[in-house]
Design a protein that fits this description.
The protein has 2 helices and 7 strands, in the order αβββαββββ. It is α+β, with helices and mostly antiparallel strands and 155 residues long. It has one domain. Strands 4-5-6-7 form a 4-stranded antiparallel β-sheet. Strands 1-2-3 form a 3-stranded antiparallel β-sheet.
Length: 155
């Protein structure tokens, strides 16, 4: 007669195996977190650098259009993409209705009209992680556009 022992087969993981997996995941997370923080600062800097280039481009395009329309005086206006842009010596002015209007978008940044400061909107980003635009102060002068961001001060 063939007798078989009916034994239940265990399935799943033991408690020790689960603890080992959790510890390994914790170690991996601890090594990945500093890298993630570094990437975040790089991304913020890249965004500020992109806005810097966009402001340089929009100032050049506005100036070219102002030259073509003879709007080089102390005040003037042009229309870019259906939006009126106020000018100072042929470049967008710092006050509202100037460089902020010339840009089609500056998503992720806030513009403090009148100061020329574009800063990132996140509360966790330092205030000096942005771009500053200063209108020209006289005829035949160009605006001053400053990238105040770096990877160090965007972290």
């Amino acid at each position: 007669m063939n007798t078989r022992l009916n034994m239940k087969q265990q399935s799943g993981f033991t408690l020790i195996e689960l603890v080992v997996v959790i510890v390994l995941l914790g170690i991996l997370a601890a090594t990945a977190l500093p890298r993630f923080i570094g990437i975040t600062a790089d991304a913020r800097f890249a965004a500020a650098n992109g806005l810097f280039g966009a402001i340089q481009s929009v100032a050049a395009v506005a100036h070219a259009q102002a030259l073509a329309q003879n709007q080089l005086g102390a005040t003037g206006t042009i229309t870019m993409e259906g939006v009126t842009v106020n000018l100072v010596f042929g470049y967008p002015r710092t006050a509202a209705g100037g460089v902020d209007s010339a840009l089609t978008t500056f998503s992720g940044f806030t513009y403090a009209g009148g100061t020329g400061i574009f800063s990132q909107t996140s509360a966790t980003v330092p205030a000096n992680c942005g771009v500053t635009y200063a209108q020209p102060t006289g005829a035949n002068l160009a605006p001053t556009i400053t990238l105040s961001a770096s990877v160090v001060n965007c972290g």
